[in-house]
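Tokens as discussed.
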């Protein structure tokens, strides 16, 4: 989980509701709080909601998924409904995308990706505008999801402007992620460590 100071842009009257995806999928590695990837946070209550909401770590207070910030992502984009967690990210993107803020698309349910025309159209817009886009996939406990850089992987499909072609290439990117070596994560001395 990256620090995200986009709180000032939150869409009014849009709340997380029953969605608890970020509390289950994301890893956290801050001085205040450490959480392994693909593990339910120990503070998540059985019926949803945070048991320490009023005193939750700063990293949790400041982080919001892109659905909470972007009006163009309608109610169906809520991560637990769409099967995709969209977040803003600053990565070590390859040239010519270095230094830019982009999007990370964590695929939670690859079955829902099959007919996700809205995602394909959103990707066309972002990639045509030069916004770096990453796909991550992998929901194994204590394992970081594998990553594919979509601007390169979808380059030819985006040029065709064919939704079905783009969705096909997205599924190929997921298949590639499934074949990548798994990166196991553990907690040692209060911080995440990555095992070979």
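Sequence:
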């Amino acid at each position: 989980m990256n620090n995200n100071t986009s709180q000032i842009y939150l869409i009014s009257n849009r709340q997380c509701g029953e969605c608890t995806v970020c509390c289950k999928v994301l890893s956290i590695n801050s001085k205040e709080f450490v959480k392994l990837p693909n593990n339910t946070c120990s503070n998540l209550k059985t019926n949803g909601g945070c048991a320490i909401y009023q005193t939750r770590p700063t990293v949790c207070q400041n982080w919001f998924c892109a659905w909470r910030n972007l009006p163009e992502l309608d109610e169906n984009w809520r991560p637990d409904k769409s099967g995709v967690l969209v977040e803003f990210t600053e990565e070590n993107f390859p040239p010519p995308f270095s230094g830019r803020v982009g999007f990370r698309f964590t695929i939670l349910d690859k079955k829902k990706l099959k007919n996700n025309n809205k995602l394909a159209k959103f990707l066309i817009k972002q990639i045509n505008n030069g916004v770096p886009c990453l796909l991550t996939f992998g929901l194994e406990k204590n394992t970081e999801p594998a990553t594919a850089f979509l601007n390169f992987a979808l380059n030819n499909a985006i040029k065709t402007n064919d939704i079905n072609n783009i969705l096909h290439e997205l599924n190929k990117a997921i298949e590639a992620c499934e074949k990548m070596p798994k990166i196991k994560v553990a907690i040692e001395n209060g911080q995440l460590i990555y095992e070979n």
